[in-house]
């Protein structure tokens, strides 16, 4: 924990290889201020090379995940003109890029408001667990704004057809509808079941080798937009290195010896 940045808008707790990151502005349903964006980016940068942290759990305080961008920041930027608005907006897009690419497994626990920027964060998670009563949506167009930074991530998550409908109607929907759209993987009826599902998923993540997970995640993300031949060539190189590497050697030896590998101990 000593290597992690000090935060005013986040609560950080490291436990058994998992870093729990709690958005902690419950008085405004954890609306994403510029300060919170900066702190989240700093935390992601700090853990990027720390293989001892194998999963990140992103959640919100006070029964809500995140109600989107903080409109107070927009009001504060008004006096500085369009350049300030652009800087404010683009900083959140950079956060989404970095969250998507972080080598650890990113788990989002979604309760209450999952709107705007919060919706975007859900779209870059590796595993998304929602409470059935959570409220999802992209309300930007109903405010005369654009979902400028989250739109590409929403399209990649649920497809262009559904993204168009949701963005152009500012529709709200619950956890079960989010599961049907492919936005979330699990929907639970209450906070207890949500916690149990989280523990189950984290336990499964910890069965996997951290380096192999990081490389596999990078391969999956690259498969979206990279040419197939060069991608498969690179994947073959990575596989060959993994077989003879520390994790590959330990994993295959553990299998032969009928024991758990060191990372799952």
Strand and helix layout:
Elements: E1 10-15, E2 18-23, H1 34-47, E3 55-60, H2 71-77, H3 82-101, E4 105-110, E5 113-115, H4 117-123, E6 127-131, E7 135-137, H5 151-158, H6 160-169, E8 172-173, H7 175-181, E9 186-188, H8 191-205, H9 210-222, H10 228-244, H11 246-256
Structure description:
The chain has 265 residues and is α/β, with parallel strands linked by helices. The protein has helices spanning 34-47, 71-77, 82-101, 117-123, 151-158, 160-169, 175-181, 191-205, 210-222, 228-244, 246-256; strands spanning 10-15, 18-23, 55-60, 105-110, 113-115, 127-131, 135-137, 172-173, 186-188. It has eleven helices and nine strands. The strands form two sheets. A six-stranded mixed β-sheet has the order 1-2-3-4-6-9, with helices on both faces. Strands 5-7-8 form a three-stranded mixed β-sheet. A hairpin with a 2-residue loop joins strand 1 (10-15) and strand 2. Helix 1 runs parallel beside helix 3 and helix 5 packs across helix 6 (160-169). The two termini are 22 Å apart. This is Enoyl-CoA hydratase-related protein. It comes from Pseudomonas piscis.
- Average pLDDT value? 94
Number of strands: 9
Coarse morphology: globular
Q: Strand order of the main beta sheet, please?
A: 1-2-3-4-6-9
Tally of separate helices: 11
Share of helix, binned? 40-55%
How would you summarize this macromolecular structure in one to three sentences?
This is Enoyl-CoA hydratase-related protein. It comes from Pseudomonas piscis. The chain is of the alpha/beta class.
């Amino acid at each position: 924990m000593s290597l992690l940045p000090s935060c005013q808008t986040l609560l950080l707790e490291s436990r058994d290889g998992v870093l729990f990151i709690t958005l902690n502005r419950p008085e405004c349903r954890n609306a994403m201020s510029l300060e919170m964006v900066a702190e989240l980016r700093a935390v992601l940068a700090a853990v990027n090379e720390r293989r001892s942290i194998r999963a990140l759990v992103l959640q919100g305080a006070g029964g809500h995940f995140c109600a989107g961008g903080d409109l107070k920041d927009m009001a504060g930027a008004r006096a500085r003109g369009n350049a300030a608005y652009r800087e404010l907006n683009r900083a959140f897009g950079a956060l989404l890029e970095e969250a998507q690419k972080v080598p650890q497994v990113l788990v989002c626990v979604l309760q209450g408001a999952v709107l705007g920027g919060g919706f975007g964060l859900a779209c870059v998670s590796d595993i998304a667990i929602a409470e059935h009563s959570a409220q999802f949506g992209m309300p930007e167009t109903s405010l005369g704004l654009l979902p400028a930074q989250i739109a590409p991530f929403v399209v990649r998550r649920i497809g262009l057809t559904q993204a168009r409908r949701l963005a152009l109607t500012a529709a709200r929907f619950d956890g079960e509808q989010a599961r049907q759209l492919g936005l979330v993987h699990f929907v639970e009826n209450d906070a207890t079941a949500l916690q149990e599902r989280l523990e189950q998923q984290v336990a499964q993540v910890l069965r996997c080798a951290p380096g192999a997970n990081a490389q596999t995640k990078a391969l999956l993300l690259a498969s979206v937009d990279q040419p197939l031949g060069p991608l498969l060539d690179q994947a073959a190189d990575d596989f060959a290195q993994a077989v003879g590497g520390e994790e590959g050697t330990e994993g295959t030896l553990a299998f032969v010896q009928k024991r758990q590998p060191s990372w799952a101990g």
